[in-house]
Amino acid sequence: MRTDPDRLSFEIVARDGDARAGVLTTPHGTVETPCFVPLATRGSVKGLLPGEVADVGYEMVLGNTYHLMLAPGGERIAELGGLHEFMGWDGAIITDSGGFQVFSLAYGSVADEVKGRRGRPPLEGGVLAIGEEGVRFRSYIDGSEHFLSPERSMEVQAQLGSDIALVFDECTPFRADYDYTARSTERTDRWLRRCLDWHGAEGPPGQAVFGIVQGGTHEDLRRQSAESVAAAGVDGIAIGGTLGEDKEQMREIVGMTVGMLPADPARHLLGIGEPDDLVEGIAAGIDSFDCAVPTRLGRHGMALAPLPERRFRYDVRKRRNEEEPGPLVAGCPCPACTGFSRAYVHYLSKAEELTGVRLLTLHNLVYSRELVAGAREAIVAGRYGNYRDAIMAGAAPWEAAGT
Ligand SMILES: [Zn+2]
């Protein structure tokens, strides 16, 4: 492992079974783990100001290389002082590599594949060619041609000036066969080395680089990828790619992959973060998660809630909420639950008032934050098993914290 104290350090302060509590120290402050990382895909956590995100307790957000390189462009953000300055966020930032987005353009999402849908229509942009050098694609904004390669992805992430950059990888389609996945995993491995070579020569000194373990659902390919990433001298390790077609298989693959990783570096699980995924992922030894779910649900009238039988959420717009004088979730410390009735948020959501989106986004982000903060406390106290059981049985995070 590289050990540059000015870049990033990760210290594990407590363990309980495989679960760990730690502290990531970045050039933009510390991040207590396990943590959830809200998405600031286009340089904003949709609907919120940076101060509101920080007030909830978040110490790191995730920016998206693919979207930011298309607009307003890495060069412009660099000229305007980098992404922290540009978006007014002085906490830590992790940027993804853009790989997931360009390969989703080519193959569609796993959900598309599982449900038999095709990829996005070509008018929204599309991939023109995938080769050893990288991926040529068309902008969904104006149809202009762009090229994303390991070097270009690292260059854009250097322009953004994130605290943690992710290496450029191929996200293999869920239906890919073993041979394709094996070839793709090998290419991702070659791309990892190109990313690290570029970053070693040209990368900002304060920026850490996380490798990504691919390999689909195949144990030997995951192991090969995990060993290669661990040996490459990265600052942390992310788990990406196809994790199966349902939660059961996803947990199996995450648990298996974590077991192949070295103990010391920070471990990030890409794109996963529903309440049950968080408590199970933490139990498996994941330190950080990013996911669109809390913010996206907020824009669609959905509130996170301790309802394991209903995927930990309910639709606030349903008629049964129209006269409810109580909060979205009893005991929730968020601004929506402490200041307003469920009936009011129901009415705002039905009327498509922006305040309704803001209140639900705040609620969902507070809920996710309470969940990981409670998990951290439980790990430190050596009672994470109780905490996890309580959450999975339907306790709210602040209730489970006392179990
Ligand atoms: Zn709330």
Summing up helix and strand content along with how strands pair, one would put the structural category as alpha/beta
From the N-terminal CA to the C-terminal CA, the straight-line distance is 38 Å
Tell me the Rg in angstroms. 21 Å
**Low-pLDDT runs:** 119-123
- DSSP helical segment count: 17
**What's the mean pLDDT score?**
94
Proportion of beta-strand residues: 15-25%
What's the CATH architecture name of the largest domain?
Alpha-Beta Barrel
Q: What's the main sheet like?
A: 8 strands, parallel
Q: What is the count of β-strands?
A: 16
CATH class label of the largest domain: Alpha Beta
What spatial order of strands do you see in the largest sheet? 4-14-13-12-11-10-6-5
Question: Please, could you describe this protein's structure?
Answer:
This protein is of the alpha/beta class. The protein has 2 domains: 9-291, TIM Barrel (Alpha-Beta Barrel); 299-400, no CATH class. Helices cover 42% and strands 18% of the residues. It has helices at 50-56, 65-70, 74-79, 83-87, 99-107, 110-114, 150-160, 178-202, 219-231, 247-258, 275-284, 293-299, 335-339, 342-350, 354-380, 384-392, 397-400; strands at residues 9-16, 19-26, 29-33, 35-37, 60-64, 92-96, 126-130, 135-138, 145-148, 164-166, 208-213, 236-239, 266-269, 288-290, 302-304, 313-315. The strands form 4 sheets. Strands 4-14-13-12-11-10-6-5 form an 8-stranded parallel sheet. A 3-stranded antiparallel sheet has the order 1-2-3. β10 (164-166), α8 (178-202) and β11 form a beta-alpha-beta unit. Bound molecules: zinc ion.
